[in-house]
Design brief:
By secondary structure, the protein is mainly alpha-helical. The chain has twelve helices and no strands.
Length: 296
């Protein structure tokens, strides 16, 4: 799966104290993982003119399934009905999350789409708190969203709406992952969900390929998106969570919208104005302050 298969701040494991050198390596790995994730999304966007967001997401689902099945090795025949229903819901949410995110990227750009999607884990983190500081953080994040979605002739409300749907899907993904993690050992649940999602997208991928025959370059970009945004972040996060405290991991997750905006500018030429950067900064700051104050 993509970086959503990583562990957002709201689902990070208990703090594990490790030596400073391990933390330094972990932080470097997190930066590489975040950069890989956003670069993969940008490269996938290069294939939109040929495959469209639907075709790129289909290929990405296939790559995610291959990686997770190899790592999780799910024993599907042993799953009970009580285990299968959250897996099926997780598969549906995973596919919808990626499709709405990539569709939003196609319409409003990488930086804004990722920032709106990031409201999902941030919302879960703030909803469970009763502190005044978190209420202020929620207000700050809300202000950032208002700035990003402010009415103007060029505002793409459909693209913004798709980004918000992706945020709801990411929040649902976090909650469902908790259920799956409690009922199915290891990574078997996530692997099974990725497999179901890939099978669902298989006929979609065939239809897209028939109607819009992919070029070698477009197919390569879609596969690269799957590897860089699914395989690399997932495997790196598995190692990173053993080296860095949950607080550090959660704080670094806040940098992803900034990385997305920078990568979108460098790779796709999607420049942002001062209001957009201010909105992104507000969302990032709200998450960072909330996490830092909670762990302190």
């Amino acid at each position: 799966m993509r970086r959503a298969l990583g562990h957002p701040a709201a689902t990070a494991p208990p703090v594990v104290h490790t030596p400073a050198p391990g933390r330094t390596a972990g932080v470097a790995a997190m930066f590489g993982s975040g950069l890989s994730n956003q670069t993969g999304a940008a490269i996938g966007a290069l294939a939109f003119p040929v495959l469209g967001p639907l075709g790129v997401v289909a290929v990405r689902q296939y790559v995610a399934a291959l990686v997770l099945v190899a790592v999780g090795r799910p024993r599907l025949r042993d799953f009970t009905r009580r285990q299968w229903w959250p897996v099926l819901l997780l598969a549906g949410v995973f596919g919808t999350m990626n499709l709405t995110l990539y569709s939003a990227i196609d319409r409003i750009g990488l930086g804004l789409a990722v920032t709106l999607e990031f409201l999902g884990p941030l919302g879960i983190a703030l909803a469970a708190s009763r502190r005044r500081l978190d209420a202020a953080c929620a207000a700050l994040a809300g202000t950032g969203v208002v700035v990003l979605m402010r009415p103007q002739p060029s505002t793409d409300y459909l693209g913004m709406g798709l980004g918000m749907v992706a945020a709801c899907c990411w929040a649902s993904y976090i909650l469902l992952n908790r259920i799956v993690g409690r009922r199915i050992p290891g990574a078997q649940g996530s692997a099974a969900a990725a497999c179901v999602s890939a099978l669902t997208f298989l006929p979609i991928g065939i239809v897209v390929a028939v109607r819009h025959p992919p070029t070698a370059g477009a197919l390569l970009c879609a596969v690269a998106a799957g590897v860089l945004s699914s395989a690399v972040p997932y495997l790196v996060d598995l190692l990173t969570l053993r080296k860095v405290p949950a607080q550090t991991f959660g704080l670094f997750m806040s940098v992803n919208p900034v990385l997305a905006a920078v990568v979108g500018w460098v790779v796709l030429g999607q420049s942002l104005g001062v209001p957009e950067w201010a909105g992104i900064a507000a969302v990032v700051a709200a998450n960072a302050v909330s996490i830092a104050s909670t762990h302190r």
